[in-house]
Design brief:
Phosphatase 2c, domain 1, 27% strand, 18 strands, Beta-Lactamase, 409 residues, alpha+beta
Protein backbone atom coordinates (compact mmCIF):
# COMPACT_ATOMS: atom_id res chain seq x y z
CA UNK A 1 0.00 0.00 0.00
CA UNK A 2 1.26 3.48 -0.87
CA UNK A 3 0.98 6.76 0.92
CA UNK A 4 1.33 10.43 0.10
CA UNK A 5 1.87 13.42 2.30
CA UNK A 6 -0.26 16.56 2.15
CA UNK A 7 -0.24 20.01 3.73
CA UNK A 8 -1.83 20.93 7.03
CA UNK A 9 -3.46 24.32 6.54
CA UNK A 10 -7.15 24.47 5.73
CA UNK A 11 -8.77 27.30 3.80
CA UNK A 12 -12.18 27.37 5.47
CA UNK A 13 -13.08 27.39 9.18
CA UNK A 14 -15.68 25.12 10.77
CA UNK A 15 -17.73 27.29 13.15
CA UNK A 16 -20.84 25.11 12.85
CA UNK A 17 -18.83 21.94 13.38
CA UNK A 18 -17.06 23.41 16.42
CA UNK A 19 -20.35 24.43 17.98
CA UNK A 20 -21.79 20.97 17.38
CA UNK A 21 -18.74 19.33 18.96
CA UNK A 22 -18.98 21.64 21.96
CA UNK A 23 -22.65 20.81 22.42
CA UNK A 24 -22.20 17.08 23.08
CA UNK A 25 -21.12 15.38 26.34
CA UNK A 26 -17.34 14.84 26.67
CA UNK A 27 -17.56 11.08 26.12
CA UNK A 28 -19.50 11.51 22.85
CA UNK A 29 -16.87 13.42 20.86
CA UNK A 30 -15.70 10.46 18.77
CA UNK A 31 -19.21 9.32 17.84
CA UNK A 32 -20.18 12.91 17.02
CA UNK A 33 -17.06 13.41 14.90
CA UNK A 34 -17.85 10.23 12.98
CA UNK A 35 -21.42 11.39 12.32
CA UNK A 36 -20.28 14.85 11.21
CA UNK A 37 -17.57 13.51 8.89
CA UNK A 38 -20.03 11.06 7.33
CA UNK A 39 -22.45 13.94 6.76
CA UNK A 40 -19.89 16.41 5.40
CA UNK A 41 -17.46 14.19 3.51
CA UNK A 42 -19.04 10.79 3.16
CA UNK A 43 -16.61 9.23 5.65
CA UNK A 44 -17.15 5.49 6.07
CA UNK A 45 -15.09 5.03 9.24
CA UNK A 46 -13.42 7.36 11.75
CA UNK A 47 -10.84 6.41 14.40
CA UNK A 48 -9.33 8.65 17.06
CA UNK A 49 -5.86 7.50 18.14
CA UNK A 50 -4.10 9.09 21.12
CA UNK A 51 -0.38 8.95 21.87
CA UNK A 52 0.44 6.95 24.99
CA UNK A 53 2.45 8.47 27.83
CA UNK A 54 5.79 7.24 26.48
CA UNK A 55 4.86 8.25 22.90
CA UNK A 56 5.72 4.81 21.54
CA UNK A 57 2.24 3.87 20.27
CA UNK A 58 -1.03 5.46 19.19
CA UNK A 59 -4.04 3.88 20.89
CA UNK A 60 -7.55 3.90 19.36
CA UNK A 61 -10.28 5.32 21.58
CA UNK A 62 -12.95 2.61 21.59
CA UNK A 63 -14.92 1.00 24.41
CA UNK A 64 -12.90 2.04 27.43
CA UNK A 65 -11.26 1.08 29.66
CA UNK A 66 -10.24 -1.20 26.77
CA UNK A 67 -8.75 0.23 23.59
CA UNK A 68 -8.27 -1.16 20.13
CA UNK A 69 -4.97 -2.55 18.87
CA UNK A 70 -2.27 0.15 19.06
CA UNK A 71 -0.15 1.25 16.12
CA UNK A 72 3.37 2.66 16.13
CA UNK A 73 3.72 6.36 16.89
CA UNK A 74 6.76 6.55 14.58
CA UNK A 75 6.32 4.03 11.76
CA UNK A 76 3.57 3.31 9.25
CA UNK A 77 1.15 5.88 7.78
CA UNK A 78 -0.40 6.96 11.11
CA UNK A 79 3.00 7.14 12.85
CA UNK A 80 4.44 9.13 9.95
CA UNK A 81 1.59 11.65 10.16
CA UNK A 82 2.19 11.97 13.90
CA UNK A 83 5.95 12.43 13.50
CA UNK A 84 5.98 14.91 10.62
CA UNK A 85 2.74 16.63 11.71
CA UNK A 86 1.23 16.58 8.24
CA UNK A 87 -1.67 14.57 6.78
CA UNK A 88 -0.78 11.25 5.20
CA UNK A 89 -3.12 9.69 2.62
CA UNK A 90 -2.83 5.90 2.58
CA UNK A 91 -4.02 3.70 -0.25
CA UNK A 92 -5.91 0.59 0.85
CA UNK A 93 -6.51 -2.84 -0.62
CA UNK A 94 -9.71 -1.44 -2.09
CA UNK A 95 -8.74 1.06 -4.84
CA UNK A 96 -12.02 2.89 -4.26
CA UNK A 97 -11.12 3.69 -0.64
CA UNK A 98 -8.33 5.77 0.92
CA UNK A 99 -7.42 6.25 4.57
CA UNK A 100 -6.41 9.77 5.63
CA UNK A 101 -4.35 10.21 8.81
CA UNK A 102 -4.57 13.73 10.29
CA UNK A 103 -2.48 15.16 13.17
CA UNK A 104 -4.44 16.04 16.29
CA UNK A 105 -2.45 18.92 17.77
CA UNK A 106 -3.36 21.75 20.15
CA UNK A 107 -1.06 24.79 20.16
CA UNK A 108 1.97 22.63 19.48
CA UNK A 109 1.02 19.82 21.90
CA UNK A 110 0.74 16.60 19.87
CA UNK A 111 -2.22 14.55 21.09
CA UNK A 112 -2.61 11.89 18.42
CA UNK A 113 -4.12 11.14 15.01
CA UNK A 114 -7.59 11.22 13.48
CA UNK A 115 -7.90 8.51 10.81
CA UNK A 116 -10.72 8.92 8.29
CA UNK A 117 -11.72 6.33 5.66
CA UNK A 118 -13.08 8.04 2.53
CA UNK A 119 -14.03 7.13 -1.04
CA UNK A 120 -11.01 7.79 -3.28
CA UNK A 121 -13.02 10.26 -5.34
CA UNK A 122 -13.56 12.37 -2.21
CA UNK A 123 -9.93 12.45 -1.01
CA UNK A 124 -8.87 15.46 -3.10
CA UNK A 125 -6.35 18.03 -1.76
CA UNK A 126 -9.07 20.52 -0.80
CA UNK A 127 -10.86 17.86 1.24
CA UNK A 128 -7.63 16.87 2.98
CA UNK A 129 -7.08 20.50 3.94
CA UNK A 130 -10.61 20.77 5.31
CA UNK A 131 -10.21 17.53 7.25
CA UNK A 132 -7.04 18.93 8.79
CA UNK A 133 -9.04 21.90 10.07
CA UNK A 134 -11.67 19.53 11.44
CA UNK A 135 -8.96 17.53 13.26
CA UNK A 136 -7.66 20.73 14.84
CA UNK A 137 -11.14 21.62 16.08
CA UNK A 138 -11.60 18.11 17.46
CA UNK A 139 -8.21 18.27 19.19
CA UNK A 140 -9.19 21.41 21.09
CA UNK A 141 -12.43 19.74 22.19
CA UNK A 142 -10.60 16.59 23.35
CA UNK A 143 -8.18 18.73 25.39
CA UNK A 144 -11.08 20.60 26.98
CA UNK A 145 -13.15 17.45 27.54
CA UNK A 146 -10.25 15.81 29.40
CA UNK A 147 -10.96 18.14 32.31
CA UNK A 148 -14.39 16.55 32.74
CA UNK A 149 -13.90 12.88 31.86
CA UNK A 150 -11.23 10.21 32.34
CA UNK A 151 -12.04 8.71 28.93
CA UNK A 152 -9.17 10.21 26.94
CA UNK A 153 -6.62 9.94 29.74
CA UNK A 154 -7.44 6.24 30.09
CA UNK A 155 -7.05 5.74 26.36
CA UNK A 156 -3.44 6.97 26.54
CA UNK A 157 -2.37 4.16 28.87
CA UNK A 158 -0.76 0.93 27.81
CA UNK A 159 -0.55 -0.04 31.49
CA UNK A 160 -1.34 1.43 34.87
CA UNK A 161 0.47 4.53 36.07
CA UNK A 162 2.04 4.60 39.50
CA UNK A 163 0.41 7.10 41.87
CA UNK A 164 3.53 9.27 41.70
CA UNK A 165 3.38 9.28 37.89
CA UNK A 166 -0.34 10.11 37.97
CA UNK A 167 0.46 13.16 40.08
CA UNK A 168 3.31 14.26 37.83
CA UNK A 169 1.35 14.01 34.58
CA UNK A 170 -1.48 16.05 36.09
CA UNK A 171 1.07 18.71 37.05
CA UNK A 172 2.65 19.00 33.59
CA UNK A 173 1.40 21.68 31.16
CA UNK A 174 1.61 19.27 28.20
CA UNK A 175 4.40 17.88 26.04
CA UNK A 176 4.72 20.77 23.65
CA UNK A 177 3.85 24.39 22.97
CA UNK A 178 4.24 26.54 19.88
CA UNK A 179 3.82 30.12 18.74
CA UNK A 180 5.60 32.14 16.09
CA UNK A 181 8.59 32.98 18.32
CA UNK A 182 9.37 29.42 19.47
CA UNK A 183 8.46 25.73 19.40
CA UNK A 184 8.85 23.55 22.52
CA UNK A 185 8.95 19.75 22.59
CA UNK A 186 9.44 17.79 25.82
CA UNK A 187 9.74 14.17 26.91
CA UNK A 188 9.65 12.45 30.30
CA UNK A 189 10.63 8.91 31.31
CA UNK A 190 9.95 6.47 32.85
CA UNK A 191 6.56 7.65 31.66
CA UNK A 192 4.51 5.22 33.73
CA UNK A 193 6.57 5.44 36.92
CA UNK A 194 8.09 8.93 37.01
CA UNK A 195 8.39 10.63 40.38
CA UNK A 196 10.30 13.90 40.76
CA UNK A 197 11.08 15.35 37.32
CA UNK A 198 8.94 18.12 35.89
CA UNK A 199 8.93 20.79 33.21
CA UNK A 200 6.66 23.81 33.14
CA UNK A 201 6.09 26.86 30.97
CA UNK A 202 3.91 29.92 30.72
CA UNK A 203 3.72 32.53 27.98
CA UNK A 204 2.47 36.11 27.85
CA UNK A 205 2.40 38.79 25.17
CA UNK A 206 6.12 39.45 25.43
CA UNK A 207 7.69 36.73 27.60
CA UNK A 208 8.07 32.99 28.01
CA UNK A 209 8.95 31.45 31.38
CA UNK A 210 10.31 27.90 31.29
CA UNK A 211 11.41 25.72 34.22
CA UNK A 212 12.87 22.25 34.60
CA UNK A 213 12.66 20.78 38.12
CA UNK A 214 14.18 17.63 39.61
CA UNK A 215 12.73 16.77 43.02
CA UNK A 216 15.02 14.79 45.33
CA UNK A 217 14.20 11.14 45.92
CA UNK A 218 11.92 8.68 44.17
CA UNK A 219 8.29 7.72 43.96
CA UNK A 220 5.57 9.47 45.92
CA UNK A 221 8.03 11.40 48.13
CA UNK A 222 9.70 12.95 45.09
CA UNK A 223 6.35 13.71 43.49
CA UNK A 224 5.05 15.50 46.58
CA UNK A 225 8.25 17.54 46.82
CA UNK A 226 8.10 18.52 43.15
CA UNK A 227 4.42 19.43 43.43
CA UNK A 228 5.24 21.83 46.24
CA UNK A 229 8.20 23.39 44.40
CA UNK A 230 6.38 23.81 41.08
CA UNK A 231 3.23 25.14 42.75
CA UNK A 232 5.31 27.65 44.72
CA UNK A 233 7.07 28.77 41.53
CA UNK A 234 3.72 29.18 39.76
CA UNK A 235 2.28 31.10 42.70
CA UNK A 236 5.20 33.51 42.69
CA UNK A 237 5.20 33.86 38.89
CA UNK A 238 1.46 34.61 38.80
CA UNK A 239 2.00 37.32 41.40
CA UNK A 240 4.20 39.11 38.86
CA UNK A 241 7.42 38.58 40.81
CA UNK A 242 10.83 38.55 39.12
CA UNK A 243 12.69 35.31 38.35
CA UNK A 244 15.20 35.45 41.23
CA UNK A 245 12.43 36.20 43.72
CA UNK A 246 10.35 33.35 42.29
CA UNK A 247 13.23 31.03 43.16
CA UNK A 248 13.63 32.60 46.61
CA UNK A 249 9.95 32.24 47.52
CA UNK A 250 9.84 28.64 46.27
CA UNK A 251 13.02 27.96 48.24
CA UNK A 252 11.33 29.25 51.41
CA UNK A 253 8.23 27.14 50.78
CA UNK A 254 10.23 23.94 50.33
CA UNK A 255 12.49 24.64 53.32
CA UNK A 256 9.48 25.42 55.53
CA UNK A 257 8.04 22.01 54.72
CA UNK A 258 11.17 19.84 54.74
CA UNK A 259 13.69 21.78 56.83
CA UNK A 260 16.54 21.10 54.41
CA UNK A 261 16.09 17.31 54.45
CA UNK A 262 14.72 17.35 50.89
CA UNK A 263 15.23 19.85 48.09
CA UNK A 264 14.45 20.43 44.41
CA UNK A 265 17.02 21.28 41.75
CA UNK A 266 15.52 23.77 39.31
CA UNK A 267 16.51 25.68 36.19
CA UNK A 268 14.46 28.85 35.62
CA UNK A 269 14.50 30.71 32.29
CA UNK A 270 12.59 33.83 31.23
CA UNK A 271 12.74 34.79 27.53
CA UNK A 272 12.07 38.26 26.19
CA UNK A 273 10.23 37.41 22.97
CA UNK A 274 11.14 40.68 21.32
CA UNK A 275 14.89 40.80 22.00
CA UNK A 276 15.94 37.19 22.65
CA UNK A 277 17.42 38.14 26.02
CA UNK A 278 17.14 35.26 28.49
CA UNK A 279 17.23 35.70 32.26
CA UNK A 280 18.30 32.54 34.08
CA UNK A 281 18.58 31.13 37.58
CA UNK A 282 20.44 27.83 37.91
CA UNK A 283 19.22 26.49 41.25
CA UNK A 284 20.72 23.03 41.13
CA UNK A 285 21.74 20.51 38.52
CA UNK A 286 19.67 20.67 35.29
CA UNK A 287 21.94 21.44 32.33
CA UNK A 288 21.32 23.63 29.32
CA UNK A 289 22.87 23.24 25.86
CA UNK A 290 22.67 25.70 22.98
CA UNK A 291 22.92 24.60 19.34
CA UNK A 292 23.87 27.48 17.05
CA UNK A 293 24.63 26.78 13.40
CA UNK A 294 26.95 23.73 13.56
CA UNK A 295 28.13 24.21 17.14
CA UNK A 296 26.91 22.73 20.44
CA UNK A 297 27.82 24.57 23.63
CA UNK A 298 27.00 24.08 27.28
CA UNK A 299 25.45 27.32 28.52
CA UNK A 300 27.65 28.21 31.47
CA UNK A 301 25.52 29.39 34.37
CA UNK A 302 26.49 30.08 37.95
CA UNK A 303 25.47 27.04 39.99
CA UNK A 304 23.33 28.17 42.93
CA UNK A 305 21.77 26.13 45.71
CA UNK A 306 18.73 23.90 45.03
CA UNK A 307 15.36 25.07 46.29
CA UNK A 308 14.86 24.24 49.97
CA UNK A 309 18.42 23.16 50.83
CA UNK A 310 18.99 26.04 53.25
CA UNK A 311 16.81 28.69 54.85
CA UNK A 312 16.30 31.98 52.96
CA UNK A 313 18.83 31.35 50.20
CA UNK A 314 19.37 34.46 48.02
CA UNK A 315 19.31 33.91 44.26
CA UNK A 316 20.73 36.02 41.44
CA UNK A 317 19.76 36.21 37.80
CA UNK A 318 22.14 35.87 34.89
CA UNK A 319 21.49 36.76 31.29
CA UNK A 320 22.41 35.31 27.92
CA UNK A 321 21.06 35.76 24.42
CA UNK A 322 19.38 33.55 21.85
CA UNK A 323 19.31 34.24 18.13
CA UNK A 324 16.87 33.12 15.43
CA UNK A 325 17.73 29.53 14.50
CA UNK A 326 19.11 28.65 17.95
CA UNK A 327 18.04 25.47 19.69
CA UNK A 328 18.15 25.09 23.47
CA UNK A 329 18.05 21.67 25.15
CA UNK A 330 17.53 21.41 28.93
CA UNK A 331 18.28 18.13 30.69
CA UNK A 332 17.48 16.93 34.19
CA UNK A 333 20.05 15.08 36.30
CA UNK A 334 18.51 11.78 35.32
CA UNK A 335 19.77 12.35 31.78
CA UNK A 336 23.31 13.67 32.13
CA UNK A 337 23.98 11.80 35.39
CA UNK A 338 22.82 8.28 34.44
CA UNK A 339 25.31 5.40 34.25
CA UNK A 340 25.09 2.14 32.37
CA UNK A 341 25.27 -1.30 34.00
CA UNK A 342 29.05 -1.16 33.57
CA UNK A 343 29.26 2.24 35.27
CA UNK A 344 29.78 4.37 32.14
CA UNK A 345 28.26 7.84 32.37
CA UNK A 346 25.85 9.01 29.68
CA UNK A 347 28.26 11.78 28.94
CA UNK A 348 28.98 14.63 26.60
CA UNK A 349 30.09 12.49 23.66
CA UNK A 350 26.92 10.44 23.36
CA UNK A 351 24.68 13.42 24.00
CA UNK A 352 26.40 15.58 21.41
CA UNK A 353 26.11 12.80 18.85
CA UNK A 354 22.34 12.62 19.36
CA UNK A 355 21.90 16.39 19.30
CA UNK A 356 23.93 16.66 16.08
CA UNK A 357 22.05 13.81 14.42
CA UNK A 358 18.66 15.36 15.26
CA UNK A 359 19.52 18.97 14.41
CA UNK A 360 16.98 19.04 11.57
CA UNK A 361 14.32 17.06 13.47
CA UNK A 362 11.48 18.73 15.34
CA UNK A 363 11.97 19.65 19.02
CA UNK A 364 9.50 16.86 19.94
CA UNK A 365 11.50 14.22 18.09
CA UNK A 366 14.81 15.55 19.42
CA UNK A 367 13.61 15.30 23.02
CA UNK A 368 12.36 11.77 22.38
CA UNK A 369 15.64 10.79 20.68
CA UNK A 370 17.70 11.97 23.67
CA UNK A 371 15.63 9.80 26.02
CA UNK A 372 15.81 6.86 23.57
CA UNK A 373 19.60 7.19 23.52
CA UNK A 374 19.65 7.30 27.31
CA UNK A 375 17.55 4.13 27.52
CA UNK A 376 19.86 2.38 25.06
CA UNK A 377 22.89 3.46 27.10
CA UNK A 378 21.27 2.32 30.35
CA UNK A 379 20.23 -1.00 28.81
CA UNK A 380 16.61 -0.95 29.98
CA UNK A 381 13.42 1.11 29.74
CA UNK A 382 13.14 0.82 33.53
CA UNK A 383 15.35 3.79 34.33
CA UNK A 384 16.37 4.09 37.97
CA UNK A 385 16.14 7.90 37.81
CA UNK A 386 13.62 10.16 36.13
CA UNK A 387 14.73 11.77 32.89
CA UNK A 388 13.27 15.01 31.57
CA UNK A 389 14.30 16.67 28.29
CA UNK A 390 12.97 19.99 27.00
CA UNK A 391 13.95 21.17 23.50
CA UNK A 392 13.18 24.71 22.33
CA UNK A 393 13.66 26.08 18.81
CA UNK A 394 13.91 29.85 18.80
CA UNK A 395 12.60 31.97 15.92
CA UNK A 396 12.10 35.26 17.72
CA UNK A 397 10.45 38.25 16.16
CA UNK A 398 11.54 39.74 12.88
CA UNK A 399 12.89 43.24 13.20
CA UNK A 400 10.77 45.81 11.39
CA UNK A 401 13.56 47.48 9.41
CA UNK A 402 11.14 50.01 7.94
CA UNK A 403 10.52 51.42 11.42
CA UNK A 404 14.27 51.60 12.12
CA UNK A 405 15.11 53.49 8.89
CA UNK A 406 14.85 57.29 9.22
CA UNK A 407 12.33 58.83 6.88
CA UNK A 408 13.87 61.07 4.17
CA UNK A 409 13.46 64.82 4.66
Amino acid sequence: MGERVGAVNASEPFPSVESRLRAVPPHALVATAEALLAELFGAQEVTLLLGDYSLTVLQPVTDLPHTGDPVSAHDGPAGTAFTIQKPVVQATADPAIELIHLPLTVRGDRLGILSVRLPTTSADPATVLSLGEFATALGHEVATASRDTDLYLQARRTRRLTLAAEMQWQLLPGRGCARREYVIGAHLEPAYATGGDNFDWSTSADHLTLTVTDGMGQGIDASLLTHLAVSALRNARRAGIGLADQAALADQAVYAQYGGKAYASTLLLRFDLGTGTVRAVDAGSPRLYRLRENGIDLVELEAQLPLGMFEETPYEEQTFHVEPGDRLVALSTGVHGTRSATGDLFGEHGLRQILSATRQASPHETARAVVAGLIEHFGSKDLTSDAAVVCLDWTGRAVDTARLTPEPH
